[in-house]
Amino acid sequence: MKKTICIVGALVAVGLQACKSVQQKGIDLTVKPGAIWQDTNQEVINAHGGGLLKRGKNYYWYGEIRGKSASEGVSVYSSKDLIHWENKGVALAKSKDSTSEIAVGGLMERPKVIFNEKTNKYVMWFHLELPRQGYKAARAGIAVSDNPTGPFTYLKSFRPNGNMSRDMTLFVDDDGSAYHIYSSRENYDLRVVKLTADYLDVTKEDTLLFSKHREAPAIFKKDGKYFLITSGCTGWDPNAATLHSANSIFGPWKLEGDPMRGPMAEKTFDGQSTYILTVDSKKNQYIFMADRWKPKDLKDSRYLWLPISFENGIPLVQWQNEWKIK
Ligand code: DGJ
Fold it and tell me: For the segment 129-138, what is each residue's pLDDT rounded down to a tens digit?
């Protein structure tokens, strides 16, 4: 009798084990662009205008924490599979000191974080607007941390080489040089400036990319070529994206047209670019990331993540209701 119970017990244990490993293998890696996306605590992810950073096996997602309209700092989430995100809290908090440049009432938009191999520091740049001035200040803000999840320490803000700086992104090239790409001159100009070796400041290598009234820059590099997706300037409302390509980050940049394909492609699927993640360049895996803004409730703005495909070497973003991370 005892023997039978034992055998049954062992079979149940083996069965449970098998079941567990099937579940593990069967982790759902489906992306549903535009759907509500919850973190591992079942809270809706609050990381708008965001950017990603990979360190080791972990991805970090930094973004704007938004209330109904307020800008409430920068959040950070972590994930190993790009689908299940754990909230790691506030990476950069608003200051309680009302005289601070990052006091409540101002704006921190489009935060991007890069890692500096020489200093071992995580460096965050973002679009900073000072309290009670709307979008007048047009400055780049910089913060730094020893850890990817922060807390980041706010350092300073400025206009790169005196140029207005609103929507922006960061890009680290193969040789470790980093660049800040930014909308300038009331957003009529898109510029790029090379950062100093510690990534905490700008150099004088600061060039106009084009004057086409574009914002929301998102860039990646493939086989030595740079690709840049931008939006038009219509506030929170969607518009048509364009793709430019170049052999040097300083240009010349060639217009390749609108890379979006599918329903609402001419309005970037009701979204606006924010970042392009290189998942695996050898396997041609890149993810285009955009925000579907909800100006009446910015916190509820949705995320559009879509894979980039290539046609004759030119990137395209085909709408899909859902797709799987490979
Ligand atoms: C468009 C920008 O891309 C957003 O980041 C934000 O600044 C809105 N304009 C505000 O209208």
Answer: 999 999 999 9
Residue 247 belongs to domain spanning: 3-324
Regarding the beta carbon of 214 and ligand 1, being less than 6 Å apart is answered no
Contact 206, 189 (CB under 8 A): no
Ordered alpha helix ranges (H), 65-185: none
In DSSP terms, which residues pair with 35 in a beta bridge?
none
Q: What is the 3-state secondary structure (H, E, C) of 233-291?
A: CCCCCCCCCEEEEECCCCCCCEEEECCEECCCHHHCCCCEEEEEEEEECCCCEEEEEEE
CA distances, 229 to each of 33, 71, 79, 271, 288 (Å): 18, 25, 25, 13, 9
Domain count, the chain: 1
161 sits in the region (left: phi over 0; alpha: psi -120 to 50; else beta) called left
The pTM of the whole model exceeds 0.85: yes
Which domain CATH number covers 236? 2.115.10.20
Residue nearest to atom 11 of ligand 1 (CA): 235
